Amino acid sequence: MISFLGEYPRQLDERGRFILPAKIREKLSGTVYIAPSPIDECLNLYPEEEWQTIAEKVSALPTVTNRSAAALQRRLFGKAMSCEIDKQGRIPLNEDLINHAGMTKDIVLVGVNSKFEIWDSEKWRKADSAFDTDMMLEGISEYEIRI
User: Distance between CA 100 and CA 115 in Å, rounded?
Assistant: First the structure.
């Protein structure tokens, strides 16, 4: 499994593309998958292996008999896009995804372990400054994570 760390300021060009940092390009190749985040106003970028793992889990859900499972499947796959990283390391975003995340020219890639989140720079600054330590501590306790 690939692990992504750090924050990388980037810019969208006039075609809605951004350039991956060189050290990230070394970890990613071929097809990547980009989907709207289900909980934040950002996008999630998945390497192919991680996307396949998610696809297998969603395929096992009872989407015929469970509305929540069906909604998850529709939203995740219906709004996602697959794309190839070009020779210059650029990734194109479609207009729907750019609009979903409220992106302007300046964006930030945020490493979140097995994926990247792609944020509008200003939205990321606000989300990051509103970080809730108590929520994080609750998660550490609930999921028994030792840091």
Answer: 18
Residues 37-78 have pLDDT tens digits of 989 999 999 999 999 999 999 999 998 899 999 998 998 999
Angle at 63 between CA 49 and CA 31, to 5 degrees: 20
pLDDT tens digits along 119-140: 999 999 999 988 878 777 887 8
C-alpha span between 101 and 122 (Å, rounded) = 11
Q: Distances from the Cα of 79 to the Cαs of 33, 87, 95, in angstroms?
A: 11, 25, 11
Helix (H) or strand (E) holding 117: strand 115-120
Q: Provide the β-strand partners of residue 51.
A: none
Sign of the C-alpha dihedral, residues 27, 87, 32, 8? positive
d(CA 113, CA 144): 17
Task: Give the tokens for residue 39.
Answer: 């909980």
User: Side-chain half-sphere of 77: how many Cα atoms within 13 Å?
Assistant: 15
Q: Domains in the chain, please, with CATH?
A: 7-121 (3.40.1550.20)
